[in-house]
């Protein structure tokens, strides 16, 4: 039997592993300039791309693709957004695109500017204004405002989002506006309302920007040959890890193909790495950690990111056990009819199974809630179900990782979305129990 060291050696010598390393390491102008994740650069790039008058020669195509990404993530009015995205480009006129616009100067006359100086400053990263012409009545025009707030290192500020929303509702009450936040996927919660404080904000992540906007732009035959390298360089910048090399903003199809090939042939090595990462400290574990997190850290980080993105594995290696240890045992404390019950388990699907079984044993009305669909998270405003009668989310996407629970009362199968993090699972369970009139405590969430 091969040793783990030998297995790691064969993996790192593999042609696809080497190709992935070369892909990750290829030179990038944003990285050379030391501004890979500088938010100003992101704002300038996006305003350039969305501006139909710029010399990328794509016209309104990037703007329309961006609206498609927005529609995919909207909690409501999805059809309204897609209708605009599908309009004939001749119906757009008088575009104005501004990077880093002060929201306190939206439609303010010169005489009033002095009054605004004492207000808290707020700066939108991209401000896009365009008129939409009615095809039948050319004199009829509707103004569309697209405002984009970008986050890379900074966290979403709900108070800031509320301030921007109130400003837009006041300034553009007679116009159509879209408030869009472009943020890392790790900042997105179960719904726009949970993430930004209002469903009127629409959040998209950088992976959607790459898949729905940037890659189609690169494939567009109308793209200026000199502009193509700019977009490609920006895509490469998004693939570079940020937050002290812990996260990536996006991957590309070329990376996914290589990772899929590597995993198909070296699945046993990946599982061995996962296994040893959960074991006690040893010389072998220290060696594997050095190879995985330091020597080939960027390559293994990309492998892990893609596998998690495609939900191919339920558990991937994590050598930072001091962080993960808090979630080793998930505990729910239930108080019902004067009796306290503790439900715990080491993984999300089993915690759900035990909880659902307890609910049915008490004769509580679970079936109706499952029929309506139990939304993931602490609110009901999202698009993803935690449990439903069919393994399909509200946005028509299928469950990523399906677990089944057979009702002990009706015999029906309830479908559980198992690919959710422990925190979201516990928040959802707590919400469900409270709806059923059950007292519930989640010590781990309180301690967090």
TrEMBL record:
Pfam families: PDDEXK_4. It comes from the Bacteria. InterPro entries: PDDEXK_4. This is PD-(D/E)XK nuclease superfamily protein.
